[in-house]
Amino acid sequence: MTRRDFVRMGAAGGACAGPMIAGAAAAQRPNIIVMLADDIGYGDLGCYGATRAKTPNLDRLAARGVRFTDAHSSSATCTPTRYSLMTGEYAFRKKGTGVLPGDAALIVDPARPTVASILQQAGYATGCVGKWHLGLGSGNVDWNGEIAPGPREVGFDYSFIVPATGDRVPCVYVENRRVAGLDPKDPIQVSYKEKIGNEPTGRERPDLLKMKLSQGHDGTIVNGISRIGFMSGGKSARWVDEDMAQTLTGKAASFIEKNRAKPFFLYFATHDIHVPRVPNDKFRGTSQCGLRCDAIRQLDWCAGQLLATLERLKLTGNTLVIFTSDNGPVVDDGYNDGSVEALGSHKPAGPLRGGKYSIYEGGTRMPFLASWPARIKPGVSDALISQVDLAASFASLTGGKLADDASPDSLNMLPALLGESRQGRDHLVEHAQGIALRKGPWKLIPAREAQGKKAASSLELFNLAGDIGETKNVAAANPEVVREMSALLENIRKSGRSRPLV
Ligand code: NG6
Ligand code: CA
What we know:
Helices cover 22% and strands 19% of the residues. The chain is α/β, with parallel strands linked by helices. It folds into 3 domains: 3-182 and 238-420, Alkaline Phosphatase, subunit A (3-Layer(aba) Sandwich); 189-232, no CATH class; 429-495, Arylsulfatase, C-terminal domain, CATH 3.30.1120. A hairpin with a 2-residue loop joins strand 6 (174-175) and strand 7. The chain is globular, with a radius of gyration of 22 Å. 2-acetamido-2-deoxy-6-O-sulfo-beta-D-galactopyranose binds next to loops.
């Protein structure tokens, strides 16, 4: 079965598209930008209460759109979140969707629909700029030749990517199917098993490092920073960390510019504020909480550049801009960059417990902004939604209908996304290394899934309505709730899908 068979397009925005998109929106489909930040927590932006790192551009976006207070990434780390966002399938269902090394094979099946392919088939020009981290090739990728399958095979017309993360080799950009700026006389080799080539590693030569490591990250030194894994060659193609935000933002802006006359979909996945945090000199020292917060300032600048590009091209009114993050915050993620010492009163997860890697709310409850001036009325929404819902919601927005076996956990949350309804999901699975269930005010964390140093080993039930910080386990007092939610979670796990068949 081909991807085409999965998505049956409705007739020109007519009856098949559903009542919520009748009329103006169906006639005038918006451009769509999904800006996915890296490791930004619920408390990291001004519009979510931060004061020590100013985010005027993202605050502006919040003020003209809907600011969500209970929106989620599907997981508490990057790869599984991105897998779910792309495919509309909970990552916990699929083995091999944990944090990937930089030489991993592509984990998205090109035969299945993705957010990108759904929009591509709806006539959108589709672009992917920034962090990928979903694998490339089918194993044993040759970085000196054609690199496929990758973004181009899962629905993107154009791609300019950081293959994995800023702290993983290879430290080069891949544009479409080639390493950008590669000199064929200086081929790239990559290994995650052993040292390759003659360049020093962080383990051998800590004296050469401009940023010391706190954990791992002791492979090849590139630009004075040692990485996870080993590489040699490709000198002319290597990125300069200090310039990465400008480079990616420039590519994103030129994609918008080139495609301004068509409806376009841009997936813009920033490197900020993942480690290594090496903001450009323009941003160093511009916050009151160290390099991590300076990187937030840089991230905000990236958002500002995109908004300015839309303004300049007169596209602001009919562009749906979504801003969110891939997982909760972390302060020391393997480099000693001074962020722990500089944090002060800044609370990266706001009032939430936990952060990156954690099954508590801080792991997956994300800043989430949706702006579309022509359609969305500004406001705040506490609807429970997830990034896994983008596939079905965008299909609905552009007049398509997902086939029953496509995107099995993606729900059409368009009315909530557009701020037209407060009705979010009935329930949501949260995922770190284990899974947890949200339903109404309740959050159930099965015993063996509880994780993080401070997590209890017994089953936990929290009533988030009065206890957003998950401080009081009320499982013993609510055996009925525990029973019902445990059964529902088991059912979601076993049935392989959570989107009801219609
Ligand atoms: C961890 C890395 C961390 C980060 C993370 C993935 C070490 C000690 N830690 O293994 O630095 O790269 O993986 O982050 O190596 S994510 O945002 O892409 O999920
Ligand atoms: Ca991340």
